[in-house]
Specification:
This protein has 2 helices and 4 strands. The chain has 88 residues and is of the alpha+beta class. The protein has 2 domains: 47 residues, no CATH class; 31 residues, no CATH class. The protein starts with a strand and ends with a helix.
Length: 88
């Protein structure tokens, strides 16, 4: 991650939602009238692919078949909605 002093490592855990904020302590701009520096704020922006190849679709369907969550909507249906833009 680029900072005012160069680069810093930022680990983004799996499942991090889009728009989540991370704070790099002491990596921001200097505070007005002080000697300490503020935090650099990093906002995560997750991009979802608009088109998938047939192989990618097959792999996602295979992954969905391994999903064992007992929610009201199947993982496969959630994936379908994600890529078709439909929400129910």
């Amino acid at each position: 991650m680029p900072t005012l002093d160069g680069t810093a490592t930022l680990k983004i855990p799996p499942g991090t939602p889009s728009e989540h904020l991370f704070y790099l302590k002491g990596k921001g701009a200097p505070r007005v009238g002080g000697h300490h520096r503020g935090n650099q704020i990093v906002r995560v922006n997750i991009e979802v692919p608009k088109k998938l190849t047939e192989r990618q679709k097959e792999l996602l369907e295979e992954f969905a078949s391994l999903h064992t969550d007992e929610s009201s909507k199947s993982f496969k249906d959630k994936l379908k909605d994600l890529f078709t833009g439909v929400e129910s």
